[in-house]
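Model: Ready when you are.
Researcher: Fold this.
Model:
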Amino acid sequence: MKKLFSLLSIIGIIAISNCTRVPENNDPILGIWAKTESSIDGKGTDSTREEWIFNDVYLGRYQSYSNSKLVFYTDFKWSEENGTYSIIYGDPQVEDITVSLEQSNDPEILALENGSVFATRE
């Protein structure tokens, strides 16, 4: 009797888990966004690159490079409400931010609330 009950329990769990469906996220922010800055000093050129990688489960990765070397990274959560995206970082060293997507431009840009460019699509 225990074997029959165990078998039915396993079949029930498998049946229920196969019936769940993960909704597909087709948000236009998905992908890699970047901001690159260069400066020239007495020693040469110094370049800084920041990347935000948005994935479809409302998570992402922020990475900062200096002269092509990774110097900092952290994960973030993101959400969208009425065309405004909130980015909430997992590290207190980075300040949370709110941006909006400007799709009419080429390349597409993420803009800050004051209208300045935050990042461009890769």
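Researcher: Now this one.
Model:
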Amino acid sequence: MDEGRKRGLLLGVLFLSNFFVIGSSSAITGVFLTPLVRHFGWSRTLAASLTMLIAVTGALAGPVVGRLLDSLAAQKVMAVGVALTALALIAAGRANSFRAMAAAHVMIGVGTAASTIIPVSLVTSNWFGARRGAALGVAMSGMSLGTSAMASFASYLIAAAGWRQAYTILAIPLVVFILPIVMLVVRTRPAAAVQGPAAAPGEGLERGEAVRGRSFWLIGITYFTYLMGVGIGVVHFVPYLIGLGMSAQRAAAVFSLAMLVSTLGKPVMGIVADRANPRAALAAAIFALGCAFVLLMHAAHPLVLIPLVLLYGIGVGAPVALVPMLMAESFGLKTFGTLAGLIGIFGMLGTATGPLFAGRIFDVSGTYGGAFILMSLLLMVAALLPYGCLPLGASSPASSPALAQAGS
């Protein structure tokens, strides 16, 4: 098989891994909540805490997964992650207590960390050079498509077979389809880059060099702020529109349209990044999300919904592909996995902070207006931060100031 077909096949497998693994784990966080509350008699707060377990565990596992990816073949790490996710889904379907269900969700957090964003970012960055942005966009679009499709599929399974069988059925494609093709197709880097028994490490900074430089912290703060905005949208977007007088169905339809734009926006913004640069593309996407929060305050006007859906969709989706691209440009690929895991901690903190931030402001003021204005301002400031990141050639110890010296 020629190199072009190998790259195309690899990209398809990475897309499918994101589609099924992220799709299944996202589906269980919302669709299964009501059946679990009814069956076990748990409070909604207790049942919803299972979602937080996936996010927190995944973020904490990220640095470990990254270190493994810097020393082991990506297909092995991904395969373990897929298998662990499948076992966790099966275990969840057999759980008879909150402790057992929580343990299953912890396993899902580790499994998704090992098989989706971090390894997909590393492998895609290694295989695609001039088209890295477009490739990352295609691979990451599997996340949003999978979330939408698998949520609907899981809802159907629960209605047809019950929640326990639904968990088990969601595990089947992971075991019989994703696990084999990951082992057969995924390779950390092209064969031309392999020297001897182990793959040659990519060019780039060591972990300590990167963490001491300003680019790491600028990317981390940008990622934190971006996912803070994403967290607010996921939790509060639809309730806010309902509060404006929209029906629940229409509010959900607006959000779904924005997610469709998000899916399409990832590869489009990736192409923009390839032709311009990842700093400009990421800045534009973050700025778009900031503008969307401004428009959200005027969403009662029907004409506002069109630019709102477009800007929110672009802003909420594209950075998932653009942040890894900026990392590759700033740090290289030598310790990419480790650094991606560390950057993921910023993301987890943002995801957790955003909904609490907006919820608290609403509880105190009775409106989301203050939260949306502040979030918009934070995002617009964060849109400037990528321009402070230094390309790899300028990030060497000899030419790049450490963080402590960046402002001097």
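Researcher: Key takeaway?
Model: The CA atoms of residues 354 and 364 lie 16 Å apart.
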